[in-house]
Specification:
By secondary structure, this protein is an alpha/beta fold. It contains eleven helices and 13 strands. A seven-stranded parallel beta sheet has the order 3-2-1-4-5-6-11, sandwiched between helices. It has a two-stranded parallel sheet with strand order 7-10. Strands 8-13 form a two-stranded parallel sheet. Strand 5 (119-126), helix 6 and strand 6 (172-179) form a beta-alpha-beta unit. Helix 1 runs parallel beside helix 2. The protein binds uridine-diphosphate-N-acetylglucosamine (UD1).
Length: 342
């Protein structure tokens, strides 16, 4: 029988791509999403890609009674991939309680609902837990540094909650994936990132500028101690990232781990500067980008990229898609959005 995997936040950017990859790998994805930062039409788009419409439940995981009642009904779910969370760094500084309440209550409600059942659990963590690492590429053993924002702190504390829960409750197998910078879109251009309002992240800002929705991109600083002065990040294609979740589920199913809580970096292992990303966009799409150099953005680390050795050796997962494919697919999605109302 095909295994059912619950995907919270399954209509979001990374969630929707993971739903597709789970189905492609032979799983039955079931989605919970309260649509607070996603669009119900993404379900139609998923169906267009995989010719299957996943079961969808619209409720808030912060509602303890609903979450527990739902899990009690769904006896045959074997895994959970928990994406549902707030993720905007700036907003988290303005509304810390909003972030702590949402990101912790939902996580704790889910974990409590599974306290006595065996389950494989994948958590969306972030490279933000490393702050500015002293050694690059940064490995999973590097020190976790004091978070720069409430958002970052929700990831750090959530990792602690998960590690302690795994230790106390052996029915859980838990994997935290520390994502680097997810970008790009599905090769069909039917799903991708749907930022609400003005995008804060680099790649959606690039594509929206190129399509004419924004006048120009501001590069946040060119005087960092990096080869071209702009910040360096480890950009990873969202489809590669989605596949890492499938690999994490398979890792837990194989029962090869000696510990029931594991952490993996999910990046490409190489860094690209903001100016390199702009050049890759221009070269791979043939579209010139209007940009200017501006001031540094508060809270930005100068450079970070991940050591991908552990995920390659233990998860058996490696990123395959390069920066040009990331840019081309993000651009195809932006053009699709222009012609299709969401
Ligand atoms: C950060 C976090 C990441 C988190 C994400 C959520 C780190 C290392 N990463 O990503 O974990 O999930 O926020 O939003 O803390 N840039 C410009 N102009 C723009 C926008 C961005 O130059 O208009 C630059 C930034 O200064 C940065 C790079 O592009 O150097 C990437 O920025 P962004 O896409 O916002 O991601 P991070 O801040 O790296």
């Amino acid at each position: 029988m095909l295994k059912k995997i619950l995907v919270t936040g399954g209509t979001g950017f990374i969630g929707s791509h993971t739903v597709v990859e789970l189905y492609n790998a032979g799983y039955i994805p079931i989605i919970i999403d309260n649509l607070s930062n996603s669009n119900i039409k993404i379900l139609d788009q998923i169906e267009k890609i995989i010719a299957y419409r996943p079961q969808f439940y619209n409720f808030d995981l912060c509602d303890e009674a609903k979450t527990k009642a739902f899990i009690a009904q769904q006896q045959d779910i074997e895994g959970i991939i928990h994406f549902a969370a707030y993720k905007a760094v700036g907003e988290s500084v303005e509304k810390p309680l909003h972030y702590y309440k949402n990101n912790f209550f939902s996580l704790i409600n889910l974990l409590e609902a599974y306290k006595n059942k065996p389950v494989n659990f994948v958590f969306s963590s972030s490279c933000t837990v490393y702050g500015q690492p002293e050694v690059l590429p940064v490995s999973e053993n590097a020190k976790v540094q004091k978070a720069e924002s409430p958002y970052g702190n929700t990831k750090q504390v959530a990792e602690e909650i998960l590690s302690e829960t795994a230790q106390a409750h052996k029915n859980y197998n838990i994997v935290s994936l520390r994502y680097f910078n997810p970008v790009g879109a599905h090769a069909t251009a039917l799903i991708g990132e749907l930022p609400i309002g003005v995008p804060q992240n680099l790649v959606p800002f690039i594509t929206q500028t190129a399509i004419g929705k924004r006048e120009k991109l501001t590069v946040h600083g060119n005087t960092y101690h990096t080869p071209d002065g702009s910040c360096i990040r480890d950009y990873i294609h969202v489809v590669d990232l989605a596949k890492a979740h499938v690999a994490a589920i398979k890792r837990m199913e194989s029962k090869q781990a000696t510990c029931n809580y594991e952490v993996f970096n999910i990046g490409t292992g190489t860094g690209s500067s903001v100016l390199e990303v702009i050049a890759a966009f221009e070269n791979s799409t043939g579209v010139k980008l209007n940009y200017t150099i501006g001031d540094k953005r508060a809270g930005d680390v100068a450079q970070i990229w991940g050591d991908a050795t552990k995920s390659s050796e233990i998860l058996g997962w490696t990123a395959e898609l390069g920066l040009n494919t990331m840019m081309q697919s993000a651009w195809e999605w932006e053009k699709y959005l222009k012609n299709n109302a969401f």
